[in-house]
Amino acid sequence: MSLPPEKASELKQLIHQQLSKMDVHGRIREILAETIREELAPDQQQLSTEDLIKALRRRGIIDDVMKELNFVTDNVDQELPSSPKQPVGFTDRQSTLLKKSDGTRMADSTTMLSISDPVHMVLIKTDIFAETTLVASYFLEWRSVLGSENGVTNLTVELMGVGTESKVSVGILNIKLEMYPPLNQTLSQEVVNTQLALERQKTAEKERLFLVYAKQWWREYLQIRPSHNSRLVKIFAQDENGINRPVCSYVKPLRAGRLLDTPRQAARFVNVLGYERAPVIGGGGKQEQWCTLLAFLCRNKGDCEDHANLLCSLLLGYGLEAFVCVGTKAKGVPHAWVMTCGTDGTITFWESLTGHRYLHKPTSPDEPSAAEQPKPLYPYRTIGCVFNHQMFLGNCQPSDSVESCVFDLNDESKWKPMSEEAVKSVCAPGATTSLPPFPPLCASTIDASVTSNEIEMQLRLLVSEHRKDLGLTTVWEDQLSYLLSPALASYEFERTTSISAGNEEFQDAIRRAVPDGHTFKGFPIHFVYRNARRAFATCLRSPFCEEIICCRGDQVRLAVRVRVFTYPESACAVWIMFACKYRSVL
């Protein structure tokens, strides 16, 4: 097959453009220099063409070029030269085809050196009651392995405590790092160290510039109104290691895959993660500690800021315009919650600790009808600032009361914004100052049916022992226990969707199961842990539940039903319902 001269020239030009785009000439020069330096014997003065071709094949250059160039021959009868179709053409595969890796090739050492994300390691202690404690959080710089012989290196790192103990050593960790599959070529340790030093210098400069900008922004904010000095405008927050980070770096869009289907289900997931304030040594108020997402998920509990950051990240992942709000609730207690802004201007507050949602309608204290308006249902009193992964805005309205606040975030007379470029410089994905990418959520490892049954059997034993100590006998009715299941499912459905369903069928079934002249009592309660003994002790503190467990009378029958609802990261909602029926005696 031959080409007309003009087509051949066009084809050469296309190939040349593609090779220039791939920087093939530069890569060949690099390999030529390396081959001369590493493989040329001292007594050998020249490098043969065959040696160079072998080196190019070994480094994958020729394979890369052939994959990029695709010659397509049309099915045209060779006897029809007058056909208008071109017999040969050049296509850029990148524009039409997706490349699929077979997993047998990995990035070269130079490319991997540019990956600045550290390995985040979290150390958790779990006691015999399944209570978790965060011991240490460490960011490992792994790229030293790129400059080690055979792609293997051993490191010794000192793990420090968290929070108030962030300056106290908790132990030494020996780490062996190995690249697999092995790299075709390792870098010199000098190159690796130089790259890391340049990144540290760049990071320090970005942090310095952002700090200078934040100080200037704060001065301008105080000049608007001196009373702004008392508002909760949180620009920086300490993580578990005591490192000050911009609050915007704690939030990033997070997709839950197929583990959570709706934003409200995501809110329920965040709600069932345990609430625990950072420990304080001595008095003086609340301890400052915002946890990174991995540390929060590993111990499955955290403060209100941790819950709000996670919920905001999930809502951003669902495509909503979400912000973390920092302010106060009743009695001036500092608090954080989440806000979403609808396309129609609707403002919705999401309480991350309970899963409740509240619509916000601003009220003006100057209006005569303001006193007649019902008080808002939400518990929030004041708001100082709002932020997400891209924006930070300080509330500069005359009053920081949530009731009268207008959430038109585009109105700079009401909300003073930080420069989005400044926020992006330290918080955008890939910025060396930002936290590493959020880990994907893990599916639950809890078997809901098995766990429900185990807790139920343990509670039956605890109730029987408790009644025995009181001199009472215990008779369980399995059918009545089973009839409690729809009620527990309905309670969880209502917590997730705010819709009540199935209560009519439950009540009808109970009426049929309780004979005339008998009384039925039931007590549902909700936990976020799976410790049966702890749950039982909590139930006894309720007079209603104690009345059922310690029921006395004629033909007393007891029932208990446990239903565990699982969520990602092995979080769970545990619903327990105690019930009894007995013959009424006048």
UniProtKB/TrEMBL annotation:
One of its GO terms (cellular component) is centriole. It is found in: Cytoplasm, Cytoskeleton, Microtubule organizing center, Centrosome, Centriole. The keyword Cytoplasm applies. GO terms for biological process: regulation of centriole replication. Residues 97-184 form the CEP76 C2 domain. Residues 10-69 form the CEP76 N-terminal domain. It holds the Pfam family CEPT76_peptidase. Keywords: Cytoplasm, Cytoskeleton. Interacts with CCP110 and CEP97. Centrosomal protein involved in regulation of centriole duplication. Required to limit centriole duplication to once per cell cycle by preventing centriole reduplication. Belongs to the CEP76 family. This is Centrosomal protein of 76 kDa.
